[in-house]
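Protein data:
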Amino acid sequence: RDLYTLARMSERPLQFHELHVGHSSPHSKLTGRVVVVLAYPSDSAIRIILTDPSAVAGASTLDVWVKDRFCDLLKPLSKPDMLFVQGFEVIQKDNDTAVQVSEQVTTLVSAWADDLERVNFHSKDLDNPPPFVRRTSASAAPAKRSSSADKTTRPNDYQYSPLSAAVEGKVINVYAVVKSFRPAEPCRGTSLILRVDLIDPTWQHDSYGLNCNLFSDDVWRLPAVQRVGDVVRIHNLKIQKFGNKLQGVRGHRHFSGLAFSGEIGADMHPQKPHSDSYSEVDRAKIVELRAWSAQQAAYHSQPLQPLSSLTSGASIRVLCQVVQATRPDLASPLYRFYVWDGTQPPPAAVSRDVTTEAIPPFLPRISAQRAVLVEAYDAVKPAALALLPGTFVRLLVKCKSLADGVLVLRVNTHTDLSDAIQAVSDSIDTPDLAQLKRQIAAAAAEIPADSASTSGAGAGAV
């Protein structure tokens, strides 16, 4: 990986599959949920097993080996606490990739949970660390709570309001449809922000929907929105005014969100495993909103088309995989990257700038021969910068013919950002993504096995 890619990845917590043995940096970040803490007195170390909070499905785990004075500080951790580390070394332990936390590399460790006062351990403060205190029933909020307060914390007792009931200063529970969104991303410190616009049959204020900026230190509390048209359930959404418009933000500590597929006939399971429960009443609301959403042309996505169908002047929606990203010019509004979908694009659309030597080892080498140039301007450039090779992405683009006859794709800037460019996780196989993977696997099989990549199409997701 080049230095620019590592620098860009270090701005956000790395996912477990992005760790490579030998990497060591005081700036890289990592976060995970504690499964178990094991002590190894003979080695003066403790082993913390984490699960990846950003994984949509599956049980991706990582061993974190803690040395030096960090050992005594982190022994009180237990399931399901959250651990954030800045600065670590990636090592090989018992033939597996692991992370080592030590005074030589680690600059900050942060731990928190619902019943744990958040604690930040800075390496410079190890001689006088802050107290690691769990809230007890005596030190937590009043032991005796009113029956109305108890009632709001039980999932089956939540009362849901239509978006027409959104009034400044009110805290509501809602079911709604996603009009547009930006995937959850780091903002300040270890916080994440999910930007999403919501609508339902009662929303009359404007055509954009209720804008919500949802902050959380815990990705599990945010609805795992995958695409426009998803149905979301949000508990304790606080309504405030920003300028002259209503805005939804995170309410009190019992805030949580779930997201469900908006497709009619899809299963009723949330798009990310969650401890919150849901009843027949919840299922009825999902079915109702799916049926209403299907009738709304405003968020009907035009069907996906393969790159083999490119023609000059056409506006199309494509699902593809990033092959190569270029070094950006920060002074320019333009950013270029290359994609493929396994099909054979028209000769005028195949880029001559991508070579097989530049293809990452986890992608089929034939992707260099079928790569198409994509240009992202202005408002969509930041979203494009976050795309790494191997990422699956859904794009709304216009096919442009340059003076020399070369065809390029330009991301549409006259639509919602989440509709124009959207990274797609490969943790859950939608029918569209499954079809893309089949196309890529078929393309990889067209070339001799000794020249093909060993990892195929499923590598790399956001």
Observations:
- The first strand starts at residue 24 and ends at 40.
- Residues 280-294 form the longest helix (15 residues).
- The CA atoms of residues 81 and 113 lie 5 Å apart.
